[in-house]
Amino acid sequence: MDNLFILLLIPVVAACLLCVVKEPTRARWIALLTSLLTLAFSIPFLIGFVPDASMQFEQSWMWIETLRLQFHIGLDGISLPLVLLTNGLIPLIVLSSFGKRYSGVFYALVSFMQAGLLLVFLARDAFSFYVGWELALIPIYFICALWGEGDRIRVNLKFFVYTFLGSIFMLVALIYLYHQGVVKSLEWESLVSLNLSEDAQRWVFWAFFLAFAIKIPIFPFHTWQPDTYTQAPAGGTMLLAGIMLKMGVYGLLRWLLPIAPFAVLSYSHIILILCVIGIVYASIIAFKQQDAKRLVAYSSIAHVGLIAAGVFSWQVEGIQGAVLQMVNHGLSVVGIFFIIDLLQERTATRSLSAWGGFAKPMPRLATVFLIILMGAIGLPLTNGFIGEFLLLKGLFDYGVWYATFGGLTLILGAVYMLRFYQKTMLGHLQPDAKPMIDIKGHELLVLSIITFFTIFLGVWPKAILGLSEAAVVNLLNQIKF
Amino acid sequence: MGAIITLSILGIFLLYLGLYRAKNALLPVTIVGALVALGFILFQWNEEAVPLYHGMVLFDRYALAFSALCMLATILILLLSKEYFRTISDNIAEYYCLIVFSLMGALLVTAYHNFAMLFVGIEIMSVALYILVGIRKNDPSSNEAALKYFLMGAFSTGFLLFGITLMYGAAGTFDLGELRNYVMTTNEISPLFYGGILLLLCGLCFKIGAAPFHFWTPDVYDGAPILITAFMSTVVKVAAFVGFFRLFSMVLVPLSEFWTPVLLTVTIITLFVGNITALVQTSFKRMMAYSSISHAGYMLFAIVSIGAASAPSILMYASAYCLASIIAFATLIAVKRKTGSEHFESFNGLAKREPLLAFILTIAMLSLAGIPLTAGFIGKFLMFNNVMGNYNVMLLVIAAVNAAVAIYYYLHVVVNMYFRDSEEPLEQQIPLTNAYKVVLGIAAVLTIAFGVYPDVILKLL
């Protein structure tokens, strides 16, 4: 059962199957079942995983023999949380779309994207990594542009060309690295043991960083993000914000840090300043937003800015916090976007000025929303608290001023998130408001699961931190100077 | 050699079939003949290659592989031709005959071992095409294209001959083997020889449509009937490129210091001209013409950084490019038949009317753009890899920027198919014959198969 290749194969097979299903009800049930199957198949890895720094469940085949490129997958403490996050969120995203009438193609694209994401998180060969990286982009482009709204064509074209530009530079860097070794190979082990000169590292750093920074996105590469998030369908936004941007952070951890440590160290000040600017800037913009989705999009820039800053802080706490916060952010952002989508379906608008007073007719929603929101803000006993605490601890050890300004995310986050809550749930209903029905059925189920994990990870963060600790410590130790 | 004889006989035989008005027999006979020729090529695969007819042609593995590619592409294009030719002209036999002759010329160009054969091959290939391009006698744009192509072609052949003459003047031979000996052993290579290289380079760049010798390409591709454009941009282009590569890899490698800067400049200009002009096109066919220029630029990478890995990477790139182009032009024919236009707008709403057709065209576009799991990605990866092997990082960065630009215009048609709605009612489906379905299916499956398991191609050479 603990065969990683099968885990990758299920979504691909599911995608092929779903392509031919036209009828919406049948399509979504098949999608739910296959995504739950993928989730079930990822449980053996969680059970069988030994929490040390080693690479486990490895599988490797020669892919392109003439170039010595392998199809090499494996799992370690850093990738396992993300694999679990992906396979856990996809069923939730599928379930959250039960109120809509999507054809099988939508779910096929979601499944296909899941395969790409999993390949990114599992790849041990840079060629496989790049293939997964690009494969995840195609389906999300179609999801956003086919089911999106507004100016979806232009916005998504920008998104695609922008991210493709980043990744093509990564490809250039990979090919460069391929030629550096004595034996030409793109295996992770051989790339890490290359001992690149400082100059080489510098430009490899920028090529990689461009790809990852656009994906994450780090200020000033974020310009595609608010538009794309806002115009995408709810499911697409959840995929983008919940899982896809983690590819970028994961890429930093898995490839950039070990391959170009010198450059990371010498540029970390610049990158941290960019991250901190992003945090403050995005928070302030988020505060001024009237469109709920746009608000959360900007808040997402602030949150991932802090995560990226944690990675570049070069501390065990910072990186541990980044791993944990990636999972947390995935959970909370999926929850919040789902709530926005629920309210939009009921009121046919996303404008905060047209909302208000929903707590009275929808007490259940008000409760789960509050808990998820607290998780996003980082209130103690919710998951966000632990993550942000660790990230700020890492930043503090790196430099006090970074922590000071990075810490603003807590305050500013509370400001815009509470404003969001107040404008939605509190106050009075609009005079011409339609009668509101409280969440039930699949809506309640999705939000309850997210709420449960928000509190669970807040009380027992070791569930994630325990998995990744050894791998993170090892990552920092093995980097040679 | 059997292949060339078969094709020559086939061409003449087809003319007789036309004479006796056996219209229905034309396509089957052509296909069978082409398959027989392909069989000859495949049987020769394991034989030891020796220059035939006093060193005129050399069917080594390299020539055989590219000949097979050209023939497969031709067969796919011929399969599309059944209804197509009938709609534009009465004299169908001439089409088949000329395509077969042109293919034979292409085979000679891939296998030449003597400059005389290069010239003869290029002329056989081109003369047939001059007629094919202008075969719609009553259409001014077709006539214009034919005239332009003829003048430009004749002009470039002039360059080619000049170059050959100068090289002959310096080395005293047309034979590639002896020319190589001359280059390797002579201490003081005559300046005439260098002049010859430059002129040859110009002539060949004309043929493959590399900038700044590309000006004929868009107009000719645009004016010719779509199937002929498909033939030109795949078979003819590949053959000309292979001839180019053969000369440089067999003879001119030791002089690379001399010609690399020239070719590098040509490559960079070609990339930018092709990609940037393609951005602003409103016609799909014209966009494909410019994109073919930019692909010529990518293929030139293999010559700029010539080495052992060059031949397999050209084969991969050329296969990917041929398959994707055939899909693109086949779809264009189907769409044009329905809407009467070659503009991007005529693709509007295709995904709703013909989801499978739209999906296959999307695969082709992604392959041309170089997205993983398609053959085009492997081709691009190999080309980039060659350049990096030469430590030419600057060229690679330029190529990367161009690849990012290219994604924009390849997605244009995808956007039209999937995200824009057509004004026509949905029920208006596009009738596809079985031949179309077969060709599109084969090309799409091969594109994915080569992308997932490229060793099939790479181990050949």
From TrEMBL, chain B:
InterPro entries: NADH-Q_OxRdtase_suN/2 (IPR010096), ND/Mrp_TM (IPR001750). It catalyses: a quinone + NADH + 5 H(+)(in) = a quinol + NAD(+) + 4 H(+)(out). It is a multi-pass membrane protein. It is found in: Cell membrane; Endomembrane system; Membrane. Signal peptide: none annotated. It is an enzyme of class 7 (translocase). Keywords: Cell membrane, Membrane, NAD, Quinone, Translocase, Transmembrane, Transmembrane helix, Transport. Residues 114-402 form the NADH:quinone oxidoreductase/Mrp antiporter transmembrane domain. NDH-1 shuttles electrons from NADH, via FMN and iron-sulfur (Fe-S) centers, to quinones in the respiratory chain. The immediate electron acceptor for the enzyme in this species is believed to be a menaquinone. Couples the redox reaction to proton translocation (for every two electrons transferred, four hydrogen ions are translocated across the cytoplasmic membrane), and thus conserves the redox energy in a proton gradient. NDH-1 is composed of 14 different subunits. Subunits NuoA, H, J, K, L, M, N constitute the membrane sector of the complex. This is NADH-quinone oxidoreductase subunit N. The lineage of its organism: Bacteria, Pseudomonadati, Bacteroidota, Sphingobacteriia, Sphingobacteriales.
